[in-house]
Design brief:
alpha+beta, single chain, 45% helix, 10 strands, 12 helices, 374 residues, four-stranded antiparallel sheet
């Protein structure tokens, strides 16, 4: 419990020190899930940097990543992982982040940066608990065992508190069924962690959880433009149902016909993510129906530069990718191939087609169609 309160105090302290209108470093979001910062360089360029917290903070350090593919920023963010084991870990990380960025951009540090983590220490309940723990070591063995029991209870509360403390924020504008999905995912993550069978990476899992929450909150999702379902409750394997495309397109007319013939009125995509997401793009393919045109390749792979390492940016949101794919299918004049064998589309064939596509474009570059072609 003390760890949770300490993190709240750190976040509050950062918000009070770095306002949203600060000329150099700004805190835009600060909650139990994430911290969103913005650094303003010497030429007024802006760099958005995010930090995601795990339930076991500060035992497990937060995960930092940048929304811009800047090697200098990435290097600074990577170095933050070297800071460990402190009652003011987050404050020390922010201090190092701001200090290094100011050096690289040759700009003055914000006032009071050097004492960022010192000023909060006297009020830290986490530090008080550390002092109490040291004093308890001198107690008799019997009392020590009781303290261990109390400590176990506190650890249990520490794991459970973050979801509860931020539940109102997390569930705002989210359907009850989707809130249940998020809670089930968190429970599964804790269970897998205790069993030592964690899949994926902390970085990818935290980002995917954030993306899923944002999708559940989004207007497009709530208005049934598309729907997302996790395959076997896996954050790394998504099925995406696209229900709405441009009503003036031939693809829209085909979907109406598909509904009459087969009772299905949507496009089904599959998205899989690797451990190094968001720094590598997801692999996305069309599962159903079989399409011609629309930049869809053999096996269901999709020909889009932004889905390759060359065109990808870690700043892209999953919802923006989903909406872009829907628009690209229409732009490419995709049509449903009625009567086509569903066996034409498979993961293996899609992966092979996409691999060949990337090799071709690495040699010849990407072609951007003239505006008159859509």
């Amino acid at each position: 419990m003390a760890c949770v309160e300490n993190l709240k105090q750190e976040l509050k302290h950062l918000e009070s020190m770095f306002k949203k209108d600060d000329v150099r470093f700004q805190i835009h979001t600060a909650n139990m899930d994430e911290l969103v910062c913005k650094f303003i360089g010497a030429n007024r360029e802006k760099f958005v940097i995010r930090c995601n917290f795990t339930d076991s903070y500060p035992s497990s350090p937060p995960v930092w990543f940048s929304e811009v593919d800047d090697p200098v920023i990435s290097t600074v963010v990577t170095e933050l992982s070297e800071i460990r084991g402190s009652a003011t870990m987050l404050l020390r990380m922010v201090r190092k982040l701001v200090r290094e960025l100011c050096k690289l951009h040759n700009v003055p540090e914000p006032p009071g940066l050097g004492r960022l983590d010192v000023e909060i220490l006297p009020e830290s309940s986490f530090q008080n608990d550390l002092d109490m723990s040291s004093a308890d070591e001198d107690e008799e063995d019997g009392e020590g065992e009781e303290d261990e029991d109390e400590e176990d209870e506190q650890n249990y509360e520490m794991e459970e508190e973050p979801p509860d403390a931020s539940k109102e924020d997390d569930s705002s504008n989210i359907d009850a069924g989707n809130v249940a999905v998020l809670e089930r995912l968190k429970t599964n993550q804790r269970r897998d962690y205790l069993k030592g069978s964690v899949s994926g990476s902390i970085q990818a899992t935290d980002r995917l959880m954030k993306e899923l929450k944002e999708i559940y909150r989004s207007r497009n999702y709530r208005d049934k433009h598309y729907m997302v379902e996790l395959v076997n409750d896996s954050l790394y394997d998504w099925n995406v149902h696209i229900f709405k495309v441009d009503k003036d397109s031939a693809l829209y007319a085909d979907l109406q016909q598909l509904k009459e013939k087969e009772g299905k009125d949507h496009l089904l995509l599959n998205m899989t993510f690797k451990d190094n997401f968001p720094f590598d793009p997801p692999f996305i393919r069309v599962v159903f129906p079989v399409l011609t045109g629309g930049y869809v390749l053999g096996g269901g792979a999709i020909c889009m530069e932004l889905l390759t390492k060359q065109g990808w940016s870690s700043a892209y949101s999953i919802e923006s990718i989903i909406m872009q794919i829907g628009a690209t299918l229409v732009k490419g004049k995709a049509r449903i191939q009625f009567g086509a064998s569903k066996s034409q589309y498979s993961l293996a064939r899609a992966q092979q087609s996409f691999k060949s596509l990337v090799q071709i474009h690495e040699k010849n570059g990407w072609f951007t169609p003239p505006k008159e072609e859509g």
